[in-house]
Amino acid sequence: AKENGRNSYQFFTPELNERAQTRLTLETELRRALLRDEFSLHFQPQFDLASGRLVGAEALLRWQHPDRGMIPPDQFIPIAEETGLILPIGAWVLRHACSLAQTWRNEGLQDMSIAVNISALQVRRDILETTVLDALGNSGLPAHLLELEVTESALMANQDEATSTLAAIHTLGVKLAIDDFGTGYSSLAYLKRFKLDKLKIDRTFVRGLPEDAEDAHLTEAIIGIAHHMGMAVVAEGIETEAQAAFLTHLKCDLAQGYLYAKPLKPEAFRQLLIKLGDH
Ligand code: C2E
Ligand code: CA
Ligand code: CA
Ligand code: CA
């Protein structure tokens, strides 16, 4: 017993203790963040490669912590997922994104689609359908202008639930995109199983373009498969003109990346819409 006691005592090294403490603090603060309105959305524009027109935006979550400043999503979304807080946070994101997009439409700014990231935990029929209907109903945004971005792993986590959930979402007229394509399980079977409208090529493939022959061939193959299955292709993480030119040459449909714009605060994004609508 003494031996065990020693071993379990070792578990609480100062480092581990500190990490556990940080998580606990983050969880408490995340709960508070929802109540105190510390979340906001940034919008990164998506452009049609052939015409250069702005056709949509991805909504990206930001957390302005009162003491620690801006905390990037990669640092708090995993904890939100583990604690289930991603459900109320995800609902907030959907509501907020739809309502801003509709506000811009009401101002007469050009129509565009708005893409929202969805966590695996949200891919449950009872939850997602209600949340999406609520966000659309509350804002008045037409369903076809909303797009949900789901990752491969979210689809694979619970395939039966995902199939019926996404079918229900599709019936509403909401669009579906597969995010970070090629980085997860990469079973092509699910492309047939789920009715997806768009495929987002992860930026780990885009990074090596056009020089890296493997990335170039993979990208070309992915675009070919997607088009054969009736999906539009978005390339993410485009940072150079050479990448954009190469993707245009491969008939990639849409482009998103720092070359065009970083994720923008709502007001900056609105100004961009006004500017682009001027000519
Ligand atoms: P993601 O969905 O793959 O989003 C794209 C990420 O790439 C964003 O990071 C964006 O700022 C970044 N990015 C865009 N263009 C470029 C580029 O040209 N170069 C580089 N290096 N990066 C670029 P961000 O905003 O930090 O978001 C990180 C991840 O957090 C997202 O990856 C997504 O998985 C997650 N996330 C963000 N917002 C939400 C949300 O509302 N709900 C959920 N569940 N996850 C979210
Ligand atoms: Ca995304
Ligand atoms: Ca992505
Ligand atoms: Ca990602």
Q: In a nutshell, what does this entry contain?
A:
The chain is an alpha/beta fold. The protein has helices at 2-11, 14-35, 73-83, 86-106, 125-139, 152-157, 159-171, 189-193, 203-206, 213-228, 241-249, 266-277, and strands spanning 39-48, 54-65, 69-71, 113-118, 146-151, 175-181, 198-201, 232-235, 254-255. Strand 2 and strand 3 form a beta hairpin.
Report on the structure:
This is EAL domain-containing protein. Residues 23-277 form the EAL domain. With 279 residues, the protein is an alpha/beta fold. It is 52% helix and 19% strand. The protein has an 8-stranded mixed barrel with strand order 1-2-4-5-6-7-8-9, surrounded by 4 helices. α2 (14-35) crosses α3, α4 (86-106) runs parallel beside α5 and α5 packs parallel to α7 (159-171). The longest helix is centred in the N-terminal third of the chain and has 22 residues, at 14-35. The radius of gyration is 21 Å and the shape is globular. It binds ligand C2E and calcium ion (CA) (3 copies). Ligand C2E binds at residues 44, 60-61, 72-74, 77, 90, 93, 117, 119, 179-180, 203, 236-239, 257-258, 263.
Secondary structure blueprint with pairings:
Elements: H1 2-11, H2 14-35, E1 39-48, E2 54-65, E3 69-71, H3 73-83, H4 86-106, E4 113-118, H5 125-139, E5 146-151, H6 152-157, H7 159-171, E6 175-181, H8 189-193, E7 198-201, H9 203-206, H10 213-228, E8 232-235, H11 241-249, E9 254-255, H12 266-277
Parallel strand pairs: 2-4, 4-5, 5-6, 6-7, 7-8, 8-9
Antiparallel strand pairs: 1-2, 1-9, 2-3
